[in-house]
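Protein modeling request. Please complete all fields; requests missing the sequence field cannot be processed.
Requester role: graduate student
Desired output: 3D structure, token encoding
Chains: 1
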Amino acid sequence: MNVPANPHARLAELGTKPDSEIDLFEGALLLASIEEPGAQHEPYRRHAEKLADDVRSYAGGTALDRDVDGRLEALHWIIAQQNGYRADETVYDDLAAANMMRVVDRRLGLPVTLGVLYIEIARAQGWTAAGIDFPGRFLVRLDHGSRRLVFDPSEANRALTAADLRRLLKSVSGPKAELMPGHYAVATDRDILLRIQNNIKVRLLRAGELGTALRVVEVMAAIAPDRAELWRETGLLNARLGNLKTAVVALEEYHRRIGGDPRGQRTALLLQELRSRLN
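Delivered output (279 residues):
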């Protein structure tokens, strides 16, 4: 399908799929379609296919293809060097940098949206690639045989060493933070899509645009309906905007999903207050 007639419906459909059946690049294009529901997807798919073909021509059948460092070299050469994809400080508060279509148009994106492109092109080669939800920075992991490397998609010219990762972690989590095995764990493709939306949400909240932030969180809840915290966030934003009935419904769903978890106690008090205001 070239143009999703209803991107919200397609994203809700994505929310019913298991993580293993999610198409990461297509999901990122669907998220971008929310702002431009009539936009053509096909040019962006063709561009990704061209990048994949160029990486295949560069590395296929050579020593690069058989070595994880060579695979990173091929990805970086085609995506960053030949096609000019980059991230810089000017994009971190730019909502367009979280929109996959605008990233392709401008060759400028956040680490997470650039990461989606690197993962898509690597997987098109049959290579094993995944995102890492590292604190403070989205990273990409390439695996081949017994070898593994991690790189920053905004600086994909080299693999990150353990010392690099430790410095990055400490810069975000404090000087006492230390690398743990969980810091290398892969993020699901659903997690990556949520991280894209979370970047948008944080910037909107910082700008005081609560209504637009609410719509972003609603999309997040649609693609990950089992994440109880998203229902709580939907309820809290609706309450702040005065949408009391909708807030109550969302918070009730949150409590249904967490059961008797003690973390819901404060929200239960808010829910009781909202119900009393409706009566």
